[in-house]
């Protein structure tokens, strides 16, 4: 079966199983009779079932292991799950003693309907984003989005409230890889249905900022942060043995003058600050038509920044020369 068609069939027949990591992992619940059993299935070579493994209710796990050969030799994942479901069904029917043991670890029909509606609403809301991971209790979800430069971004939301139609009404951002300025923009819109469109919009608006940061890291020696994260808006750059400059950038306005602070020996800092201020006045301010590095080279009277690799090579050669002379 075509993998895409199989995924559609799987989601239709097992709506509470969530595909993650490009369909290499499935988490959620499998329905058997009136029960829903928590399950985690790893399919590292999907659509091939080579290496497939699972985690299931401990009392039924023994029966599944007895049928392991049949399970792992299934033709497809949907065949595997149907056989899986049949084995569990037979186990429950034959071993009545299990019924009382499983009651506390599964959902009833009302819970199933609630979470199915919740998932349907979530899938309709996320647009171009994808579900990367979801808590089995449906209290949180991690969403990923791949931007126009093919970089992937994650945001984790705590799902806190639903209305009478089981639609999500309140949520919190509990983990992200964005600058705080971007999170503030996201929180201005509290509508869950509009949140993901806003998330995509904010990510795309930050792409030039991340490109600028990447350029800085390639052409200068960024001392701090080490290593830089997507959420970091400051960069401390090496200028000399006794001098560095810290830039605090506005991620939504990368052409304007950043906050500039010099660090190092007192004389070196005073000289650099005076030179920067003098050239800033002489050139009539920061030139938004130039790049960040071009502005800094002009205002600091630097012909070209040196990167970390260059400095390390110079130090290495100096060390080798010293050893030879000794």
From TrEMBL:
<feature type="domain" description="Fanconi anemia complex subunit FancL WD-repeat containing">
    <location>
        <begin position="9"/>
        <end position="89"/>
    </location>
</feature>
<dbReference type="InterPro" id="IPR026848">
    <property type="entry name" value="Fancl"/>
</dbReference>
<dbReference type="InterPro" id="IPR019162">
    <property type="entry name" value="FancL_WD-rpt_cont_dom"/>
</dbReference>
<dbReference type="InterPro" id="IPR043003">
    <property type="entry name" value="FANCL_d3_sf"/>
</dbReference>
<dbReference type="Pfam" id="PF18891">
    <property type="entry name" value="FANCL_d3"/>
</dbReference>
<dbReference type="GO" id="GO:0036297">
    <property type="term" value="P:interstrand cross-link repair"/>
</dbReference>
<dbReference type="Pfam" id="PF18890">
    <property type="entry name" value="FANCL_d2"/>
</dbReference>
<protein>
    <submittedName>
        <fullName>WD-3 domain-containing protein</fullName>
    </submittedName>
</protein>
<dbReference type="InterPro" id="IPR043898">
    <property type="entry name" value="FANCL_d2"/>
</dbReference>
<dbReference type="GO" id="GO:0006513">
    <property type="term" value="P:protein monoubiquitination"/>
</dbReference>
<feature type="domain" description="FANCL UBC-like">
    <location>
        <begin position="114"/>
        <end position="206"/>
    </location>
</feature>
<dbReference type="GO" id="GO:0061630">
    <property type="term" value="F:ubiquitin protein ligase activity"/>
</dbReference>
<feature type="domain" description="FANCL UBC-like">
    <location>
        <begin position="208"/>
        <end position="305"/>
    </location>
</feature>
<dbReference type="InterPro" id="IPR044037">
    <property type="entry name" value="FANCL_d3"/>
</dbReference>
<dbReference type="InterPro" id="IPR016135">
    <property type="entry name" value="UBQ-conjugating_enzyme/RWD"/>
</dbReference>
<dbReference type="GO" id="GO:0043240">
    <property type="term" value="C:Fanconi anaemia nuclear complex"/>
</dbReference>
<dbReference type="Pfam" id="PF09765">
    <property type="entry name" value="FANCL_d1"/>
</dbReference>
């Amino acid at each position: 079966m075509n993998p895409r068609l199989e995924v559609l069939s799987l989601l239709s027949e097992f709506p509470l199983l969530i595909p993650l990591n490009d369909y290499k992992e499935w988490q959620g619940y499998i329905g058997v009779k009136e029960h829903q059993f928590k399950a985690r299935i790893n399919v590292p070579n999907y659509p091939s079932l080579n290496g497939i493994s699972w985690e299931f209710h401990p009392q039924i796990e023994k029966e599944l292991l007895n049928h392991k050969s049949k399970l792992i030799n299934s033709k497809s994942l949907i065949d595997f799950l149907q056989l899986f479901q049949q084995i569990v069904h037979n186990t429950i029917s034959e071993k009545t003693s299990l019924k009382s043991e499983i009651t506390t670890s599964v959902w009833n029909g009302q819970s199933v309907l609630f979470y199915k509606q919740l998932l349907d609403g979530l899938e309709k809301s996320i647009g171009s984003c994808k579900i990367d991971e979801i808590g089995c209790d449906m209290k949180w979800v991690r969403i990923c989005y791949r931007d126009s430069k093919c970089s992937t971004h994650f945001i984790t939301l705590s799902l806190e409230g639903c209305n009478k139609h089981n639609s999500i009404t309140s949520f919190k951002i509990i983990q992200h890889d964005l600058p705080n300025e971007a999170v503030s923009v996201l929180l201005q819109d509290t509508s869950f249905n509009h949140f993901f469109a806003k998330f995509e919009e904010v990510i795309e608006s930050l792409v030039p900022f991340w490109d600028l940061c990447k350029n800085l890291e390639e052409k200068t020696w960024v001392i701090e942060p080490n290593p830089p994260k997507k959420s970091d808006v400051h960069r401390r750059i090496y200028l000399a043995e006794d001098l560095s400059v810290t830039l605090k950038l506005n991620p939504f306005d990368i052409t304007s003058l950043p906050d500039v602070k010099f660090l190092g020996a007192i004389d070196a800092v005073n000289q650099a600050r005076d030179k920067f201020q003098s050239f800033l006045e002489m050139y009539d301010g920061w030139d938004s038509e130039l790049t960040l590095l071009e502005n800094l080279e002009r205002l600091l009277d630097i012909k070209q920044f040196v990167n970390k690799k260059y400095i390390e090579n110079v130090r290495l050669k100096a060390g080798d020369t010293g050893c030879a002379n000794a």
